[in-house]
Amino acid sequence: MLSLALPLLLTLLPGDPSIVFNGRSGQVHARPPRLDASITVDGALAEPAWQRAAVLSGFSQVVPVDGIPAADSTEVLVWYSPTAIYFGIRAFESHGTAHATLADRDHIDADDNVQLLLSPYNDAHQALVFGVNPLGVQMDGTIVETGSQKGSGSFGNGVQALPTPDLSQDFVFESKGRLTPWGYEVEVRIPFKTLHYQPDSVQSWGVNVIRHVQHSGFVDTWTPVRVASASFLGQGGTLDGLRDLHRGLVLDVNPEVTQRTPGAPAVAAAPDARWQYSPESPQVGGNVRWGITNNLTLNATMHPDFSQVESDAGQFVYDPRQALYFPEKRPFFLDGMEGFATPSNLVYTRRIQQPVFAAKVTGKVSGTTVAFLSAVDDRNTSLAYNPATGQGGRGPVYNILRAQRDLNAQSRLGFTYTDREDERYSNRVADADAFIVLGRLYNLTLQGAGSRTVDSTGVHLAPLWGAVLRRNGKKYGATYTLTGMDSAFTAGAGFISRPGLAHMNVDQRFTWFAERGRAIESFTFNPMYDLLWKYQRFMDGKDAIEKKLHFNVNFGLRGGWSVGGALLLETFGYDPNLFQGVYVARPPAFGGDTVPFTGTPRLPNRDWVITAATPAWQQFSANVLYVWGHDENFDEWATSFINLLDVSALIRPSDKLRISPEFMLQSYNRLSDGSWVRASRITRVKTEYQIARPLFFRVVGQYETTSRLSLIDESRTQGPLLFRSATGSFSPLAGFRANDFRIDWLLAYQPSPGTVFYAGYGSTSTPDALRLDQFTETRYRQNDAFFVKLSYLFRM
Fold first, then answer.
1. N or C: which end of the chain has fewer CB within 10 A?
2. Are 656 and 101 in contact (CB under 8 A)?
3. What pTM was computed for the model?
4. How are beta strands 501-513 and 794-795 bridged, if at all?
């Protein structure tokens, strides 16, 4: 009983009442004390410094219903020393033991957790996120205010949601926690060396605290956040009166060495050839981070190791006209990447493939956020490089500049310039954009850009433009989008999924909330109307080539359940660019000749969608997506029966073991005879065992199979489709079956960001079928590799 009452007793001890800041009472401008003290971060708030700390209390619920007192009490203690800021978290849990596992970094979303949001520039534009679970396992990243508080995906139901942090970046900070009879408590120390902040002698930082409670699915915040708002970060509080902060010398030196040993058949053409390994020379590289001032940081890298320790997760190609987007995972590019965020993805650092040298400067000066990156890529990435001879080309040079000027507390004006210089090729892009908050609920994003590309065909100038108006109301929200991009627009350092289009979208959301305690907590109806033109057709005032009308619904259920559904009504206009060189051999009834394939002018679709998500239980959680109905079959340009299934789960048999299985199925059946013209399946299982907090072992297995029949003119003549070569000969678009099995294992020791030891193995096989005995046979293995990586962070 004494241990249960002690935390409450500490909060009731007599003292200065001004150190308690109750969020629900509007006391959101806290003044933490400056103490010349240091503590051991051990998860117990027992040192005298904690008794003198400011206390952030009076939390409010924001999900599923905002504006009401939090069901579970939370206290966050704050003080700072000359070199670091300290947070002590007391999270009271009266419903049983909190969810807590010994997870890898950034994998605590299924645990109870508390996230500290810090905006050292107090600009309501972006925040650093420092999250911890009850054991002190860390998650960290950034939130950039975009004005949208709608959660969505490929088949999103438009429910309101808090901004999701980008967890790509890793920051150096200390944390440790422990479970208690009354909940849990965690100590956090964030050194000022980790942060950028203002050069002022006395300053205020933006702050908020988010608590995720897994037993109920509720989310609480220190300040009373309203989801119905044009800005989430703008509703936070402040830490005032911060003075005499000493960052000291910020110089991080991070050398690294990697050795890779790839394997392949000794004779590639012989199926029974002996497997042969060829060790590569160790690759030595490194990174340097220098704090030029409190608000500017220089990063540089030379011959970095950019090998991935886990292959990219498989993705289905829903539309072959669109490029697949893979997120950045490389540490050098991740640090400070929020400064390069632009509308329309004009900056995509994976374009820089194997840099020989790169450097960047990030920070904020006099109300202007600046980010500049320059890189020299390896010459084998040049457009002029001949891989057969190893000759030609020089390394492409990239320069990327992004600047954002604060207009007021929440609005900003942005400018972007990118260039890529290659042998006999160059591309430059200039962009101006603005994010403007209009009152309490509305915000507007504007963008105008132009590209200049020089290649062997000449000089090409092309525009890009767009506008997005959002209303983030509690019961009614809407997004109105109009964008355009000329077919010649090129972003040499960016990502354009499908160029040459104009796009209009009207996306509305109507939400009803039930009384507290009801089985159905909320209901959302989300109609969406979407039009797509080829850019020149839009400029000429012609009809849209794609028209979509979606009706989405979502039920938020008590305990964290979510169930949704949708009806998708769509039409797709024929795209001749997708069938260049394709002919059809028409049967005698249709002329008996071979003519260019022209396709059905417009395909109608009608799809049904069901989604479901379980709560994040202690040992299990799952998500399901199922789509069926009539959908476009791009292989034959015909309407087909579609079945699309995506089932994923998180299984936690113990507090150290995590198993993440996922199964994806995509099939198209011909309306004429029901045959599967194309079927793709991806089975992926990730298993992680956390041996200790900094040490884990991971195995990822992914089996992907695709089968396709020989293609025919399904919607018209039933004649076979043929491809005409440059010589004029015809060949059928024949069927095929492809199997691919990928396995990666990794032993990782990561005591802190920048200090790592990796030992791993990866292999790719092409078995004939899903038979385990074939996965290990050499004759089915295509390639494999062992690797070892060692890096150490020297923090001066």
1. N
2. yes
3. 0.86
4. unpaired
